[in-house]
Structure formats: C-alpha cells, structure tokens
Amino acid sequence: MLNTWVVVPTCLPLVVRRCHACASERFRASGRFRVNAHHKLIDAWLLALCTACGETAKLTVLERMNVRSVRPELLDRLHDNDFGLTAELLQDPVVRRRNRIALDWDSAWRLDTGGSDHLDREVIDVSVRFAARIPVRPVRLIAEGCGLSRAETERLITEGKLVSAVRLSGTLSGGFTFTLKR
Questions:
Q1: pLDDT tens per residue, range 97-119
Q2: Residue 134 CB neighbours (<10 A)
Q3: CA atoms within 13 A on the CB side of 163
Q4: For residue 138, is pLDDT > 90?
Q5: Which of 10, 30, 79, 130 is 20 to 30 A from 105 via CA?
C-alpha cells in the first residue's frame, strides 16, 4: 500500500538579503505592496522588513510597465495587499532573480504523514508530495517521517534497505517516492 506524505508550508519563508542599515541577512515579507504609477507606467514592490532592525526593503515586482499590459486581477491583488500573492511572488524564480534574493525555509514547513500506522510494517512504500517548492533534504524527510535518526537513515541507504528512483542525498523540492525495507 502506497502512503502519501505532504510537505506543507506553515508560514512564509524568510528572505535572504543583506540589510543596508544593519548588515543583517534576513527579512520577513510583510504581505504589503507599494504601487506607484507614472502617467502610463507602473512600478510595484513587495515590502519586506529586516528581522534585526525593522528597516524596509522593496522587492521589485513590476518595473516601468505599461499599465494596460498588467492584468487587472493582478493590479487588484496588489492594491488589496493579497497575502496569497506574496507567497506566489516569493516562489517566482523571476522575482527572486531580479531582486537577487534567496529563501530561508527553516522552520517554515511541516511534514504531514497521515499518521504513524505505517511505522510497524516490514516494507513501506511512500510517495512524497510538496504543496510548495520547498527545498528539503530527502534524508531529513524520511528520518522525520519514520522516526529515525539521520545517521540511521543514511545507514539504511548504504545497506540498500532504503531505495528510490531519485538521489536521496542533496536537496529536492519536487515529489519523489521511496521504499523502506526493515
């Protein structure tokens, strides 16, 4: 029987970017936007606050775009400070690249295993899904979901008792499956 585990975000990740005021490297997305129009051109920024000093940083969302080329729904969401849009934009690789930021997902996700009834079986087949593109080490997920230490999980991989079609070392942010034989 195939078990399904889901990696679920619990809050917005921190934005990794250097603060010009205090040299801290973590910002918290405020969920608020600043929109500024210059005749037919529009700029929009996502506001983020430094976790150390509270200084505001503006993350560029739209830059000198013709107002008519922006979807009306997007404009409405920007004006309404739509929190869901904040999460979408932080996940957008174009926005991250344009602003030269990275995301810190530590303590911003949880693993939903659907219960612990699978732990006593000899063979466990698991499909892991991601509700958002959260980069996590598969070894960490498997250890947490099966109640093992990371060292024990690594040992099971080495012994061939934990197998997957994907490489379990490194980081993944997309779904994968694995089989654990005890």
A1: 999 999 999 989 999 988 766 66
A2: 19
A3: 7
A4: yes
A5: 79
